[in-house]
Amino acid sequence: MTWSYRVIRHADGHYAVHEVFYDERGVPTAMTQEPISFLADADEGPEAIVTALHRALEDARLREPLPAEHFADPERAAREAVLDELVAEAQREGHGYTLTELQMLVQEGIESGTSQQTMPELAAEARRRLRET
Question: Which span out of 52-56, 59-63, 77-81 was modeled with the highest average pLDDT?
Fold first, then answer.
C-alpha cells in the first residue's frame, strides 16, 4: 500500500490536506480522518517539516483535489485514480499538455463507452499513446 498527501474537498466546501492511501492498482481507498499537521520530533528537527511540506506541495501540484465523497464510490475512485496517474506522469515527463487538456482527453475516453479492458490495461494503453505524441 502506498500513500501521498492529497488536497481533499470536503462536503461543506472547505479544503484540507490529508494522507491518502492507495491500493496496488493506485486507487485511493482511504484517507486520514483528520487533516494532517506538520510536526517533527526533536531528533528529526525542522528539516523534517520542510521535507514533508515540499512533498505535500509536489503532491498537490500533481493531483487535483479529491472530493471526500470519493471514498464512497469505488468505481469512480478507480476512474479518478487512472486520471490522476496519467496526469501526474504526463506532467513529470513534460509532454506539454496542460492539466485541463489531459483531463478533457481522459473524459473523452470515459464518455466513449465501456471497454473489455481492465483499468490497468486501459492505463497502459493511455501511457503508450501519450508517449507516441
Answer: 52-56
**Per DSSP, which regions of 12-103 are E strands?**
15-22, 28-31, 66-67
What letters, b where the CB count within 10 A reaches 16 and e where it falls short, cover 83-100?
Answer: bbbbbbbbbeeeeebeee
DSSP 8-class letter at 53 = H
Q: What distance lies between CA 39 and its chain's CA centroid?
A: 23
Domain around 43: 2-132
* CA-to-CA separations, 67 to 11, 17, 99, 129, in angstroms, rounded: 8, 12, 18, 28
Indicate the number of domains in the chain: 1
pTM: 0.55
Cell matching residue 119: 483499468
CB 120 within 8 A of CB 78: no
